[in-house]
Design a protein that fits this description.
With 504 residues, the chain is an alpha+beta fold. It has four domains: 47 residues; 103 residues, 2-Layer Sandwich (Alpha-Beta Plaits), CATH 3.30.70; 116 residues, Trna Endonuclease, Chain: A, domain 1, CATH 3.40.1350; 96 residues, no CATH class. The protein contains 17 helices and 21 strands. The strands form seven sheets. The protein has a five-stranded antiparallel beta sheet, with helices on one face. The protein is elongated, with a radius of gyration of 36 Å.
Length: 504
Amino acid sequence: MLPAELLRTRLHKGEVRPAFISKQDEYLKLAANIIGIFTSCLGKKKACVKQNITELEEDIFDYKLVRGLSLLLERRSVFEVNAAIEPARARSIVFEIASRSEFTDRASSIAEAAKILGVSYAEVERSLFADLDEELILTSFQSISPEELVEQYNLSLAQTLLFRCIKIDFTISDNWKRVFSAIKRNGLMYSIQKSGDSYTVSVDGPLSIFKMSEKYGTSIAKLLPEIMNSVEWKIQADILWKSTNRILKFTLDSSETDLFPKLRNLENYDSSVEQSFSEEFSAYDSGWSIRREPEPLLTGSSVIIPDFSFERYGKRVYFEIVGFWTKEYLENKIRKLKMLGNVDIILAVNKELSCSKFEELPYDIIYYKNKVPVNAVIEKLRKIKEDIENREIDNMKNIPLDISGEVVELKDVATKYSISLDGLRKLVESRRIEGYVLIGDSLVSQTKLQVIASKIKEVKKLSDAINLIEENGVMYPYELLKELGYKVRWAGLSVDDSTIEANP
């Protein structure tokens, strides 16, 4: 944040908005000039920076802007004392000498101190006040581009305004775990509501608006970067304007993302257990897609954000890894899990947790020691998949399948009847479809099968047989050859050199 006196805002009809700057040439040029001042003053006194900034302020009408930008760069700088003698010690010795009657002027006092300290006159003189702010030396500067400085300035303006915030409502599309971790870390009170696929979070202060603590405003400001770390976000805040004691509205959303730093991060896991599980699960061909930190699950006015969710056939199964935490944390976790109700969730619980209350939960539990057994999770998901398919088959048992055409793809039939492909395949295998044969994931009419069978009698080469079958609209040539009673005589791995022959 910036000091309150450097906050630049615009007021209009009960609303307040920070005076953000764009990436137009005039602002980029100003940012580049200030960055250039810090770069050129490397190795020089802080007074060099201040003098150049003061001169720039005289040329720029908006001194708050110049000082705000320079302050952000100052925080990226290291200023150090450059002295042969510790300044406090040098001053102590010189002042003590000066208090004696035989030393009547500054020069003689410094000269005597140099003798005592075993250094030169000049080194004592330079050391005397080397720890004063303007005497500090700029020893390093972490430079950024003008565009980055403009973005960081805009973020700082918004945070500074939110320092006066007494309430904030926000909606985000993802990044829930980091946001709620920030809310908890900063001791903020919140409530959450769901409307359709979106969630709105209201963060309130523990005190009345006229007794608002500065700590609360600071905590709200710290929350802003995490909110902006979402793909889509929107905030509306109530700002206490102290000069008039009025409540003003401040709104901002992701349509203005270009004004702020690109805060998207590489995926960070809370633990190596989570990371190892995610990487290992993704390597399996389970048929389930995995998503890290899905949307929150409401438990009253608070939330649980599962570590992962798995999706297949439109079904979503949540997965929570419960590691080794404090007793209070576990009791709170169990309490919220009990409030979830009818939710499909799998729990992976560390064996070292001496908490039998997990057994009381109506959810599938997998125990682990050092790493979550991926095979056990996949087995749970396999059973869920089979239950889904069995329910689909049961729902379809009295519904005749309307099949027409020479070659019918199962995926098209599955879409037509809103059933999973695997469920439909099981249904077709258990129910004879008159006039059709199941070849791979296609239903091929008996008529088409006979046409292909009559043509393929004259074919010897495997490659010719494959071409013939595919030209007739069947994409599973090996399954069809097997159905017709042929076997392949392989000549190495070459399709062109291999042949087919009818089984005797």
